[in-house]
Amino acid sequence: MSGGVDSTACALLLQKQGEVEGFFMRLHQPDFEKQKERVKSIAEKLSIKLNIIDLRNEFEEKVLDYFTSHYFKGLTPNPCVVCNREIKFGLFFDRMMGHGMDMAATGHYANLVCIDGIYHLYCGTDRSKDQSYFLSRLDQRQLSRVIFPLGGMEKEQTYRLVEEHGFDDFRGIESQDVCFLEGGKISCFLEKRAPGNFTMVQSLPAREKSSVNTGAFSATQSASEKDLVSPAATPFMSPHLTQPRAVLS
């Protein structure tokens, strides 16, 4: 659970099918305490048990180090894809199963089809919210233990579902920011990771303006800061539902 509309709707749908517990990851969210209180409030309203799993050290090693090193090399990282594979659908799911869970569910807009024992990942029905790209590196073991209750729904249906159950404060708060970037500023994050290494002030005569160079890391191949932090509403890659996104062994 994240405290957002999608995970809340997911929990509501699952409650119609069986016993549900909520799980919340502690990573390096700048607003962790605020987010935690919101998740706790939602769990209480749904009358479900909430478990908080601390994965800060693992997230640091698997995601933040990867993200930082790629920028230092002038490459464009994709932290959400790596986090899904290594943390959310990896270590986090392992911890869930350690709590006796049979399956895990997330609020991603994607679909799964199992054909002859092989799991195929497909786009979500709502193509404007499709998230199959961010799940494209999941392997068969990971796909075999997850369900996507929102895969066949439109976003508007999700909003209506939670509003029917008394949650009327979700509209207008949807975020596409990278979760660990405070204010969505990549440059500020990288400067904190290696202070003093990336800002050069050119010395000039008195009363002349100085120029500041934030360093080579601010320019990477294939994407801009805006592209990474605020992706387009329409997916860049959007194959038909008859074509699987990926099948990994």
| Euclidean distance between termini CA atoms | 28 Å
Shape: globular
Strand content: 5-15%
Radius of gyration over alpha carbons?
Answer: 20 Å
Q: What order do the SSEs take from the amino end to the carboxyl end, as H and E? A: HEHEHHEEEHEHHEEH
Q: Mean pLDDT score, rounded? A: 83
Largest sheet: 2 strands, parallel
The overall strand count is: 8
Number of helix segments?
A: 8
Residue windows where pLDDT falls under 50 for at least 5 positions: 224-243
Physical arrangement of strands within the biggest beta sheet: 1-2
Task: Name the features.
about 250 residues; 8 strands; about 35% helix; 8 helices; alpha/beta; two-stranded parallel sheet; two-stranded parallel ribbon
Verbal overview:
This protein has 249 residues and is an alpha/beta fold. The chain is built from 8 helices and 8 strands, in the order αβαβααβββαβααββα. The strands form 4 sheets. It has a two-stranded parallel sheet. The chain has a two-stranded parallel ribbon with strand order 3-6. α1 crosses α6 (155-164) and α3 (56-72) runs antiparallel to α4.
